[in-house]
Structures are given as structure tokens and as C-alpha cells.
């Protein structure tokens, strides 16, 4: 009876409860058997409780208990999951009796720590390879970025005559997405249809994900429409919990696919259907849809979804909170973003980075730096994304000394390798501070002359400060790196060809201005916004706004007696026509 109870607790994830029952069992004087020990060792593995596991293993050895294969596998799994690989290796090679599960445990262990050669060596030594073994070795290589090797192993599996199961098909479809081998994906889809497992939730979701990542949304939608399981509702208690979860993931996969492929209207329609049909909304779906609202500047829709999340009592996490902060920030609602941050009880690096980036992107550099220092005081370790936000804040606030300090802190204090984003932030900082002379030294010192983005940031600074000679030199460097790049570089080369009249680079002739009005993106946005009379218009820009547009917008809102909030060069400015 004790063993049945302990096993039941262990199988249902109640590891601490199982350990409590085990203690009571010993106090009652009941002697555990091998099945009891196997269940308890699995609990120790799930809790990462090496001390308890070693104590049980020691008791088995001291009392001469015969360790069969199943119990030996539980011991092996304990040492692997607790990271004691040297002991696990010794146990596997010299002591224990082995079956295919034993081999799979060790192969999986090597794959998790990136020991690909050892995993393959063990795999080749295995006398009998079942489908679980093949799945482990293929999936492990795919997760470690070795998709080609994984695909070759998949071919070897087929040639060996081992039948693929649902997990194999899902792994294969992930490989198709990663390698963009769509024809193979179609073949796998055909095989799935022939053997009749298309309604398996795991396989169906993998098919949808594969077609979404390959950009074939009609195919993904067709797989979705073939969903055998009716949409579950809260009143439908007949549907199994696992089926509900699988159906929810299926809906989520298609919503996310629409967003990733830029089909926001379809994504929002499908999300609305999910809400109407009471499909379970998981964190992944909500995070994706909130992010889409932010990227599209759909504040009202984002607020409605936020209200729905609160209404259904959905438990928020740091990733959803981060998405909402980002959404409100992109829509210019800093107060709402701050409220989300304050209301989250658990504030990890993801949430801190979001709020720091929020204020940095709106030109409130001092507030962003204050938050960064507060985060450090609370013992939160920054990551590379956090430092992008901090350096952006320093750049927009013109804090040259602080920016240099944080850049050095990132590299020397936290051992974070600077990326192109960090370098461009620093160059922008030097440029905004008027220190063009420091940029050249910075590029050579950090050996980043091969990065096109670096020279683009440099060129932008030259144009702002009207340093014609330096701009010419920078543009030549940039064109050497990216000779086929269009846009501003073509404009620069054309200007150079016209007697090198660099003064004309930022000047547009009056007659040209009339023509360009119809193609001016900011003006088009304002014109569209004016269709809704009486509505406050938010004009968000991540680039500098020309003086011509300043004059244009001032006249428009004066004449029409309207309000606008314009985000210019990451600095929010409120304008009123009243």
C-alpha cells in the first residue's frame, strides 16, 4: 500500500509529498522494496536533491540490496540530472546492468552538456536502437544547432527500418523549418496523412509551425481547419484536459504564425475567435498578440486585450508583463508602462530591461539610468540587452561620461562581449555629444571597421554636425563594405558626382518639396489620422524629423484646432492647436 501511494504521488509530480510518505513509511518500520526506492529516486531527481538521493544509494549498497535494471536506471538518472557526470559515467561503464533506457539516459546527458562526439560514440556502441534512442540523438543535435547532422541521422533512422512515431515526425518538421527544405516537409506531411496520425495534437502543431515558418499561411490554415477536435469551451467537461491543451496550442501556433508573417488582421481575427469560443489563452498567445499591438501602434486594441486579461484573472508572468510594458512604451503611454512594472511582484532581468528600455527610447535618459542603478542595488545582474537600453539612454540624454562608464562596466565588470548594437549606441553617443573625433579612435580600438551598422551611425552623426569632409570619408568606407546598398548611400554617391556639393545633401529645392509631400511618410500618417475628427493623434518616430515637417504639422494643427503628441528623435513633445 505504501509503495502504491508513493508511486502515485511521484507520477503526478507531487515529489515532496512522496518523500513525506517515504519518511512515514520508515517510521512505521515498513521495509521499502525496489519499486519504492525507484519512485523515491525519481522524486529526488525532479527536486534536484542530490543529498537525499546519495543517502538512498548508500543505504542500498550498505544493506546489499539487489539493484535491478529499473532501479539502476533511477540511480543513473539521479546523478545525471544533478550534474554529477563523472559518477554517472563510472556507474554506467563499470557497475550497472544496462538496457536501452540506460543508454538513452547517458546519450541524452551528453547531448544536454554539448558533448556531441561522446553522445555519437555511445550511440554507435548501442547494440539495439529503438525509436526513443533515435529521437534522442536526432533532437539533441537539432537543439545544439547541428541541423544537417540531425537530418542525416534521420535518414539513417529511416534506412535502418525503425518506424517513426509522433515525436519523430515533430522533430523532423522542426528540422524542415530550420533548414528551409520545404519539399521534404511536404513529403513528411504526406507520410503523416498516409499513416493516419494527422489529428495527433503534437504532430498537428508541428505541421502548422512548419508551414508558418516557411511562409505558407494558407497551408498552415488548411491544417488548422482540418482540426478534428471541436473547439473546447468551459462548459464542455467531456473533453480531456490534454486535448484542451493541445487544441489551445494549435490555435496559438496559427495566431503566432500570422503575426510572424505580417498578417496582423488575420491574427487579430483568429484571436477574437479564440476569445469568443473560450479557447484557453496561454502566455505565449497573449505575449505574441500584445507585442503585435505594440509593433502596429494599436493602443486601443492593446488596452482591450489588457482589460480582458485582467477580467479572466489570467496569471501574469514577467514575459507577459514585459510585452505589455513594451506595447505601452511604443504607443507613448509611459505612465501605463510604469504601472505594469510596479504591479508585478516578481521583477527579474526581463522586466527591468523592458522598463529601462521604455524610458530610454523616449529620451528620459536620467530616469532610465536611475532605474538601472536601482536594479543593480537589488542584486539583479544585467544582461547584454539591458546594456543596450542603458547605452541608448546615455546617448539620448547626451551623457558621454556615464555612457563610457557603463560600456566599460559591461565588458570588464560583467564579462559581456559587446555586440554591434552596443557599438552603434556608443557611436551615436559620441555623435550626439559632438565628439566625432572620438568615433574614429573607438572604431580602431575595438576593431569594428567591418561592421556596416557602425559606419551608418557614424555617417548620421557627420550629417547632423554638417562635417562634410568626414562624411565623405565615412561614406567611402561604407560603400566599400556595402557597394550594393541603396538608400542614403546612393544619395551620397550621386551628391559626390555632382561636383561634391555636400551642402545640398540635406536641402531640398522648393519645387521638389511639393512633389515629395505625397510621399512624405509622416505627412501621410497625419493625413490619415485627421480622418477621425476629435481624436488625439500619436505620431511616433524613431528617426530625426526634418524642419520642413515641423512647420507642416504646426500649421495643420493650428488650422484644424487639433491635439497631437509627437515623439521626435526619442523625445516626447505635446503639441496643441487650441
UniProtKB/TrEMBL annotation:
Key word Plastid present: no
Keywords per UniProt: Repeat
Pfam families, alphabetized: DYW_deaminase, PPR, PPR_2
Record's keyword annotation contains Repressor: no
GO BP annotations, alphabetical order: plant organ development; RNA modification
NCBIfam families linked: PPR (TIGR00756)
Family: Belongs to the PPR family. PCMP-H subfamily.
Name of the featured protein: DYW domain-containing protein
Organism: Rhododendron simsii (Sims's rhododendron)
Amino acid at each position: 500500500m505504501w509503495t502504491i501511494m508513493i508511486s502515485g504521488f511521484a507520477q503526478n509530480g507531487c515529489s515532496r509529498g512522496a518523500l513525506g510518505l517515504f519518511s512515514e513509511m520508515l517510521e512505521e518500520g515498513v521495509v521499502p522494496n525496489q519499486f519504492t526506492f525507484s519512485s523515491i529516486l525519481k522524486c529526488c531527481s525532479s527536486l534536484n536533491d542530490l543529498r537525499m538521493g546519495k543517502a538512498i544509494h548508500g543505504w542500498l549498497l550498505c544493506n546489499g540490496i539487489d539493484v535491478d535494471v529499473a532501479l539502476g536506471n533511477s540511480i543513473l538518472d539521479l546523478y545525471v540530472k544533478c550534474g554529477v557526470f563523472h559518477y554517472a559515467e563510472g556507474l554506467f561503464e563499470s557497475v550497472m546492468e544496462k538496457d536501452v533506457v540506460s543508454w538513452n539516459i547517458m546519450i541524452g546527458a551528453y547531448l544536454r552538456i554539448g558533448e556531441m562526439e561522446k553522445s555519437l560514440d555511445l550511440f554507435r556502441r548501442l547494440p539495439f536502437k529503438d525509436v526513443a534512442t533515435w529521437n534522442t540523438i536526432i533532437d539533441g543535435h537539432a537543439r545544439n544547432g547541428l541541423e544537417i547532422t540531425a537530418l542525416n541521422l534521420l535518414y539513417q533512422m529511416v534506412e535502418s527500418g525503425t518506424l517513426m512515431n509522433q515525436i519523430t515526425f515533430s522533430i523532423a518538421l522542426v528540422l524542415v523549418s530550420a533548414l528551409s527544405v520545404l519539399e521534404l516537409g511536404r513529403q513528411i506531411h504526406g507520410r503523416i496523412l498516409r499513416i493516419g496520425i494527422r489529428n495527433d495534437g503534437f504532430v498537428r502543431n508541428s505541421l502548422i509551425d512548419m508551414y508558418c515558418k516557411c511562409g505558407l499561411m494558407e497551408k498552415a490554415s488548411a491544417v488548422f481547419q482540418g482540426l478534428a477536435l471541436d473547439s473546447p469551451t468551459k462548459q464542455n467537461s467531456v473533453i480531456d484536459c490534454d486535448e484542451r491543451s493541445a487544441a489551445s496550442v494549435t490555435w496559438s501556433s496559427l495566431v503566432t504564425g500570422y503575426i510572424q508573417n505580417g498578417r496582423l488582421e488575420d491574427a487579430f481575427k483568429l484571436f477574437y475567435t479564440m476569445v469568443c469560443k473560450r479557447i484557453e489563452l496561454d502566455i505565449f498567445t497573449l505575449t505574441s498578440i500584445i507585442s503585435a499591438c505594440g509593433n502596429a501602434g494599436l493602443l486601443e486594441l492593446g488596452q482591450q486585450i489588457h482589460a480582458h486579461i485582467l477580467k479572466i484573472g489570467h496569471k501574469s508572468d514577467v514575459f507577459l508583463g514585459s510585452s505589455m510594458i513594451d506595447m505601452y512604451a511604443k504607443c507613448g503611454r509611459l505612465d501605463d508602462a510604469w504601472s505594469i512594472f510596479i504591479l508585478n511582484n516578481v521583477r527579474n532581468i526581463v522586466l527591468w530591461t523592458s522598463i529601462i528600455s521604455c524610458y530610454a527610447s523616449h529620451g528620459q535618459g536620467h530616469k532610465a539610468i536611475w532605474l538601472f542603478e536601482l536594479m543593480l542595488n537589488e542584486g539583479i545582474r544585467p544582461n547584454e540587452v539591458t546594456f543596450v537600453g542603458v547605452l541608448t539612454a546615455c546617448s539620448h540624454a547626451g551623457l558621454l561620461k556615464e555612457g563610457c562608464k557603463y560600456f566599460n562596466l559591461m565588458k570588464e565588470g560583467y564579462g559581456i562581449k559587446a555586440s554591434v548594437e552596443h557599438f552603434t549606441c556608443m557611436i551615436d553617443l559620441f555623435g550626439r555629444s559632438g565628439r566625432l573625433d572620438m568615433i574614429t579612435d573607438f572604431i580602431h580600438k575595438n576593431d569594428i571597421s567591418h561592421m556596416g551598422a557602425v559606419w551608418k551611425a557614424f555617417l548620421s552623426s557627420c550629417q547632423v554636425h554638417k562635417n562634410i569632409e568626414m562624411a565623405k570619408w565615412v561614406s567611402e568606407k561604407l560603400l566599400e563594405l556595402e557597394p550594393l546598398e541603396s538608400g542614403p548611400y546612393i544619395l551620397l554617391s550621386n551628391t559626390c558626382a555632382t561636383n561634391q556639393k555636400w551642402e545640398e545633401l540635406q536641402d531640398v529645392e522648393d519645387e521638389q518639396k511639393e512633389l515629395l509631400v505625397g510621399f512624405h511618410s509622416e505627412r501621410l500618417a497625419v493625413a490619415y489620422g485627421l480622418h477621425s475628427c476629435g481624436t488625439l493623434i500619436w505620431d511616433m518616430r524613431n528617426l530625426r524629423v526634418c524642419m520642413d515637417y515641423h512647420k507642416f504639422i504646426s500649421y495643420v494643427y493650428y488650422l484644424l484646432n487639433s491635439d497631437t503628441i509627437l515623439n521626435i528623435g526619442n523625445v516626447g513633445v505635446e503639441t496643441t492647436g487650441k
